[in-house]
Amino acid sequence: MPHSSDSSDSSFSRSPPPGKQDSSDDVRKVQRREKNRIAAQKSRQRQTQKADTLHLVSTRLLTLLLRLGLCIPQQWGCETQP
C-alpha cells in the first residue's frame, strides 16, 4: 500500500517557516513581557494603596484612643497620660 503524503505532510504545512516562527515567538515574548509589566505595575499600585489605607486607619485609631484618654505604649507614637 502506498504511503499517504497527506497525513504526514499536513502537520508540517500548518507550522510557519522557521524564519516566521522565530519572529512570531519574539512577538509573543514581547507581548508577554508587556502584559507582565502592566500586571506588575497594577500589583505595585494595589500594594501602595493598601499600605496608604492601613496608615490612615492606624492614624485614625491612634487619634481615637487619645480622645478617649486611653493609655497606649509610647512606641505607637503617643505619650501616655498620668
TrEMBL record:
GO cellular component terms given for this protein: cytoplasm; nucleus
Keyword presence, Repressor: yes
Keyword Transcription regulation (UniProt): yes
Swiss-Prot/TrEMBL keywords: Activator, Cytoplasm, Differentiation, DNA-binding, Nucleus, Repressor, Transcription, Transcription regulation
Domain BZIP: 32-46
Cell compartment(s), UniProt: Cytoplasm
GO molecular-function terms, A-Z: DNA-binding transcription factor activity, RNA polymerase II-specific; RNA polymerase II cis-regulatory region sequence-specific DNA binding
Predominant subcellular localization, coarse grouping: cytoplasm
Bias kind Low complexity: ranges: 1-14
Annotated region described as Disordered, given as residue ranges: 1-52
InterPro entries for the chain: AP-1 (IPR000837), bZIP (IPR004827), bZIP_sf (IPR046347)
Gene Ontology biological process terms from the UniProt entry: cell differentiation
Family as reported in the entry's similarity comment: Belongs to the bZIP family.
Protein name per Swiss-Prot or TrEMBL: Basic leucine zipper transcriptional factor ATF-like
